[in-house]
Write a structure and sequence with these properties.
mainly alpha; extended; 282 residues; 69% helix; 4 domains; single chain; Helix Hairpins
Length: 282
Amino acid sequence: MRDEAVESLRALNEVVERLRAPGGCPWDGEQTHRTLRPYLLEETYEVLDAIDSRGPETLREELGDLLLQVLMHCAIAQESEEGFDIGDVADVVRAKMVHRHPHVFGDLAVGGAADVVVNWEKLKKSEKQTRLSLLDGVPHALPALAYAQGVQKRPARVGFDETPTVARALDSVREALDTLRSLAATAPAASLQGQDWAISNGDTGAAAAEDAIGALLFATVALARQLRVIPEEALRGRASRFADRFRALETRAREDGVDLHDLGMSEWRRRWDAAATLSNQG
């Protein structure tokens, strides 16, 4: 690491500690690990957005905001009797990385990236003696697609994969779709105008549909995993393209002086098809 980089990190940490110290910032001084939770989450998502935009200046700035959150948590932690500082955090993660890379820092030979992953899980299990399950390390608060990927991936790394091939994953998707077709064929017709989801209120049909959709999404995550696609990113990208196209439709409607609430289905379709070209131009 450059000497200048070390000094920059030290200077930033001193700023954070000054903000927390008596006579510092009243707002920063009142923060706790829990009150900072939403800011940590927000800054993490802003880093992800910066990665998607592929702008180095934006990414640098957002990584700085995320680093600030890490330093804030360390500053708060070191104020307690059994606390820690940023140096302790660095020591722990450094030791972890050395221990989990014996093929780099030791004499273990590996055949490739797959061997590294398997060995990583074995070493992590030896470190986490209090964990009863491989799945204990998958945060339940993750977005659902990422959580599904995590609970599938961890067992697969040690040898159990419910859908070990692309063909088997496709079969699972087809099975889930067949179940949904059967449910849809017997579902009562209903208007969903102004209603975003069904409220089951004990309705077994709605519960069955929810289970079937869950099975389809879970199978789709398995298929994505076999194709080496991150489902969370795939869906985010598809949703973003939909949003861009719909915004293009709205823009053209405003230019035409058209109220979208007055459109019939055929006009909606015409404008939606035309918006494909507009969003691609944008």
